[in-house]
Write a structure and sequence with these properties.
The chain is mostly helical. It contains 5 helices and no strands. It starts with a helix and ends with a helix.
């Protein structure tokens, strides 16, 4: 999907995506499509310290019904 590809692309761009990109990935953690949520979480993880603002939403993602969101 377009949203999934966007999540992957933002992760590949790295920390230079800035606050706006991190906010987009953070919003994707609440996407209705599971693969988008997973890719957003992985992309935020790839950003390292730059993704610190997303920590509250990442913690919430740990409560996701899908096991692979919690891994």
């Amino acid at each position: 999907s377009v949203r999934r590809n966007a999540a992957l692309a933002l992760g590949l761009l790295g920390p230079g995506i800035g606050r706006a990109g991190i906010e987009q990935l953070t919003d994707m953690l609440r996407d209705r499509n599971h693969p988008v949520r997973v890719d957003a979480a992985q992309s935020l993880g790839a950003l390292g310290d730059a993704a610190k603002p997303a920590i509250p939403e990442l913690r919430t993602a740990l409560l996701d019904k899908r096991r692979d969101m919690r891994v």
